[in-house]
Write a structure and sequence with these properties.
3-stranded antiparallel beta sheet; mainly beta; 521 residues; 2 helices
Length: 521
Amino acid sequence: MAEEMFEYLTKKKLADLNAAEATSRIEAEIVLPEYKEEAERIIRARPKAVIRSKSVYLRDKMLICEVEGTVGFHVLYQTAPKEEGEKASSFLHTEAFTQTLQFPLGAEEIAEEDVVLFAEAVPRSALVKLMGPRKLSAKCEVSVSVNVKCNQSVSLFPEMPAEDLITRGEEVKLTRLCKTHTEEMSFSQTISLPKAYLPIEEICEMEAVLFTQNVRSEDGGVSFLGLCDLHCSYMAAGENLFVSFYQPIEFERRLGIAELSGDSFCRVSLTPVSLKATPEINEDGDNKNILFELSFLCEVCGFETESVIMTTDAFSTRNHILTEKKRETTRELLGVFDFTDTVKALLPSKNAEVVRAEGICAGVEFRNSYLEEGKICLEGKLLFSYLGITESGEMRNYEDSYEFHSHITPAFSIPEGEECSVEVYGCARGIDVEPEGEQFRLRFDLCGSVSVFITHRPELICKLERGEEIVRKRGEIIFIYPREGEDLWSLAKEYHIPPESVKAQNHLTGETLPTYLKLIR
């Protein structure tokens, strides 16, 4: 049997290569700086992990993923009593960590530039102990989870005429990663406290939460609206009061990336790296201005989806051919859109004596996302903590959680009956906790971005061999009585006659078959 290989069409598709999780243990001994007052009691110790760099390389048929980051232990403590009484103070201690993960590649050939690493670091099991007036010990486990996506090459038989070969094709959607780009950015802004607020004695806590909206792909770049939630807590000057405030900030950015086009889909994520707050005197001579300086990492992932006609069936009018088929799973990126949803709840209070909640911090864990009646359902848990202030002025840290169930309307239509998958990235902003006796009111905005993929599993020809010639009698006439379920293509393939010839010989204008057909070979 003579073998003839036809030209293949080689394309790339986006695939989930692997996912893993690893743990780094952090232990540190902390000594208070000389300019800080001695500690009497720890009010709150909150670690926060930030990934600063990610790298991927190949070695001995293994994919090596290296993650570097820092863990900041933000400790709020009560100072030792003095003549002016007790007050709150704070400090920040930073430790670095590294984590290496390895994935076997097997027989797959992957280029480093086709791999993107989505990584997240979450501190767990944190413990900070006061060992003396100026000495603390801190322990923490950092859970690093990674999801590796890559472009994988797919070589299949395209729909194309080749001498006597007749093919039937199907439109296949292929999504690929076209570009990843990471850039460090910064901005600074001076914020003035409202007149009703007391002047600042010492800034104790500060946190920035970043996310994006209105991400727009353009030819040669991407632009977006950045949203920053600034949370700041301070001790009021002349008063033993702990005060918190929240300030939203908007900023616009554009990154020039030559590989992007207006048809690209982009996911933009912002990660705070460092935040500095400096109190300043305002025009009235009060210490009520704060200069915020924030640096952050901007990570852009660009995706493109293209349609390709691939062969699902083929036959020859001269030779018997053998075809080898396989189901090629592909995911089409239907779109990426931003969302905002306000969540309200009434929960039992941890302590009925709390009259005010300050220094509220929160994080979101998305646990499940799926489609339901044309909407995207998000299930997850909000983990939050706050400093409860009692009537006597005592300050205690409280931790709580709330399981939410939110419904998001997509920004585009999703075809019914399709197999879809949803990827969600987001956070909570503008969280508010209001104690009301034995209950408290919880309100926050759930913000982020959603990527919707459609999964296709077409059966495509991946190999084709030409065999012996077909023996025919010249001028042979065959009368065919089509069986139930037979169509024009199946008859043409069975008798090795082009479908257009069958139509011409029987004066057919459509695909509907008459009671009988006449075939001339």
